[in-house]
Amino acid sequence: MTTTSEPVLIERPGDGVALVRLNRPNVRNALDMATRKALAAMFEGLHDEHSVRAIVLTGNEQAFAAGADLKEFVDAGAVEMLRRRAERYWNAIARTPQPVIAAINGYALGGGLELAMCCDVIIAGESAQLGQPEVRVGIMPGAGGTQRLARAVGKFQAMRICLTGRPISAAEAFQFGLVSQVVPDGEVVTAALEMARNLARLPPLAVMQIKEAILAGQDASLETGLALERKAFQLLFASADKREGMQAFLEKRPPRFKGE
Predict the structure, then answer these.
(1) What pLDDT is recorded for position 86?
(2) The pTM is what?
(3) pLDDT for 186 beyond 70
(4) Distance of CA 114 to the CA centre of its chain
(5) Domain 204-251, what architecture?
(6) Catalytic site residue 126?
(7) 102, 114, 200, 206: the active-site residue
(8) Which site among 15, 55, 101, 222 is 20 to 30 Å from 204 CA-CA?
(9) Which candidate in 16, 111, 125, 145 is catalytic?
(10) Where in the chain is the domain with CATH 3.90.226.10?
């Protein structure tokens, strides 16, 4: 068990996967500004690390992230909050070209859930609790908790979650479409790593284009989204991986994708 004081850790278990861990166990991985900055810097570094084809983001057994560190908020004024420009740190995760899997045990509340919603897939343990409790301390979600949540689960469930501030279970989150998969608590990171390894074996250019098309098209008109999809589809016909994948299929052998 590591005892480092670094707020964010990275492991490279191989097979094209990076495992990023929030590391503030004494405060349930509460997200202070130092942690946000470290997390953003780490993801920005991974953007151009072509050997990394999939990323898992997790916390520990007790919490993915239990929310913002309120000690940094209690005396803050509006101008100070404006000057922090904290949204840029979450954007680094949301704009990562590789697929990012959030592996959630315990609490994913407030900023913790907003962070998870910047990822592409969410795998949660059976005992996980997810929610936006900001209203209970006199504020509201400010990093995607009203906007990404409403797009994920619809207006009426988002209203309930944000207005009441009460967490929901992993089973409810799965039912609403907020969670991709629910697994036993002890298998969360294992399941996330297995999915990441499977993604890393696929042609990375195609994987990145699928992610980009879904994200860019979700708030566009259907016509615009279809055009984005079509152009991405056509672009992949210039890749060596397209030829390798189809040739391997015809020759009944495993493909060897190089990201070219």
Answers:
(1) 76
(2) 0.94
(3) yes
(4) 9
(5) Orthogonal Bundle (1.10)
(6) no
(7) 114
(8) 222
(9) 111
(10) 8-200
